[in-house]
Amino acid sequence: MTVQEELDKLEQTILDNNVCPELHAQATQLVFGSGNPEADVMFIGEAPGKNEDLSGEPFVGAAGKFLDEMLGHANIKRPDVYITNIVKYRPPDNRDPKTEEKAEFWPYLLKQIAIIKPKVIATLGKHSGKALIPDLVISEDHGQPKKLKVMLNGKEEEIIILPLYHPAAALYNGGLRQTLIDDFKIVPQIIKENS
Ligand code: URA
Fold it and tell me: Is residue 85 within 6 Å of ligand 1 at its C-beta?
C-alpha cells in the first residue's frame, strides 16, 4: 500500500468508527488533512472552521492565508508539507474543541503521524501543542523544539515537536506576527539538522 492509500484507509476508518458523532452530525464533512503524505514537516492545528468545513481542506480561511504567509517567510512550499488538525470536524460556532473530542481523535492523529513519519511536527496553538506536550506554556515554549518519545505502531519513536502560536493568534494580536515569522524559520533549520 502507498502512503496515500494508508492515509485514505485511515480516513475511512474514522468514518466507519463514527468518531465524534455529535460533531459529525452538524458538520458538512470530515476535514482529514492535506498535503504531501511523505512530508518532512507536519503542521497540526486545532479544528476546522467554516471555510475548512465547506471545502474539506484544513487552513483555507483567514488563518490559512496567514499560515501561507508564514510558510513563505520560512521558504517552505505548502504542497511540500502535510497539514491537519487534532479535531477533524468543525465545532459549532467555532467554539474550542472539547477535551473529550480531542481524546476521541487522538488515536487517529497518532496513526496519521505514524503513517507520515515527519521529521518535525509543528503544533499550531495550545490545543495541539498541549496534546503532544502536556505541560506546554505557549508563551514560554513557542519556537523551542522538544524531543518527544511517542508510541507509533507499537514502537517507541523519538520525534521533534516545535510548538508554535496559532496563526489566528497573530491575526488578533499584531505583536505576535514577528514572533511567528521568527518561529516558522526554525522549521527548515530543524529539517536540515536532521537530514
Ligand atoms: N484553524 C485551525 O486550527 N485549523 C483549521 O483548519 C483552520 C483554522
Answer: yes
Q: Is the pLDDT of residue 157 over 90?
A: no
Specify which residues 155 forms β-bridges with.
152
pLDDT of residue 149: 85
Q: Which three cell numbers stand for residue 71?
A: 510558510
Q: What is the pLDDT of residue 56?
A: 98
Looking from the CA of residue 46, the nearest atom of ligand 1 is 3
The model's pTM is 0.96
Phi (first) and psi of residue 135, to 5 degrees: -95, 20
Distance CA 54, CA 27 (A): 9
The pLDDT, as a whole number, for residue 174 is 83
The answer to whether 126 and 133 have CB atoms below 8 angstroms apart is no
Q: Establish whether residue 48 lines the binding site of ligand 1, counting it when its CB lies within 6 angstroms of any ligand atom.
A: yes
Place of cell 501543542: 129
Is the C-beta atom of 49 inside 6 A of ligand 1?
Answer: yes
Q: For residue range 52-65, list pLDDT tens digits in order.
A: 999 999 999 999 99
Distance CA 31, CA 120 (A): 22
Distance CA 39, CA 119 (A): 8
Q: Please calculate the CA angle 175-176-178 and round it to the nearest 5 degrees.
A: 90
